[in-house]
Write a structure and sequence with these properties.
By secondary structure, this protein is an all-alpha fold. It is built from six helices and no strands. It has a single domain, classed as Serine Threonine Protein Phosphatase 5, Tetratricopeptide repeat (Alpha Horseshoe). The chain is about 60% helix and about 0% strand.
Length: about 120
C-alpha cells in the first residue's frame, strides 16, 4: 500500500506522469491504518512545524514529516506548493519552501532539486 501511495505521489503510471497527491494520501492513510509505519525516524530537536488543524491522510503524512521522514517532508512541501494540504486551501509557498529545505537537509534529492529551482525563480 505504501508503495502504491508513493507511485501516485511521483506520478508514475498517471496520465502525463503528473502526481496525484489526494490519491497518494489515501494510500498512505490505508498503510498507516493497517499498522505499517515504514519510514519513521527520530524527531528533530525543537522542531516548530506542527500538524495542528490537519485531518486524515494529510495529518498522517505531516506526522511522518515532523518525525524526520524526508520523503514525507517533500510531500508536505508539494502539497503546500499546490494548495492541496487541506480542502479549499490556496498555495502557501513560504511553508512549501520550509518543508522542501527540511527535506533537502535530510538528504531527499527531489527536494534539493526543488529548492534550487525555486531559488532560481526568486532571484
Amino acid at each position: 500500500m505504501y508503495h502504491l501511495g508513493l507511485m501516485y505521489k511521483k506520478g508514475k503510471g498517471q496520465p502525463g506522469n503528473k502526481p496525484n497527491f489526494k490519491e497518494a494520501i489515501k494510500w498512505y492513510k490505508k498503510t498507516l491504518d493497517a499498522g505499517y509505519e515504514p519510514l519513521f525516524h527520530q524527531p528533530y530537536a525543537g522542531d516548530k512545524l506542527t500538524c495542528d488543524g490537519m485531518k486524515g491522510g494529510v495529518q498522517s503524512v505531516c506526522k511522518k514529516a515532523i518525525t524526520g521522514d524526508a520523503e514525507a517532508m517533500t510531500e508536505m512541501g508539494s502539497m503546500y506548493w499546490s494548495g492541496e494540504d487541506q480542502p479549499g486551501s490556496k498555495p502557501n509557498y513560504k511553508k512549501a519552501m520550509k518543508w522542501y529545505k527540511k527535506a533537502a537537509d535530510a538528504g531527499d534529492e527531489d527536494a534539493k532539486g526543488k529548492v534550487v529551482k525555486i531559488q532560481k525563480l526568486i532571484q
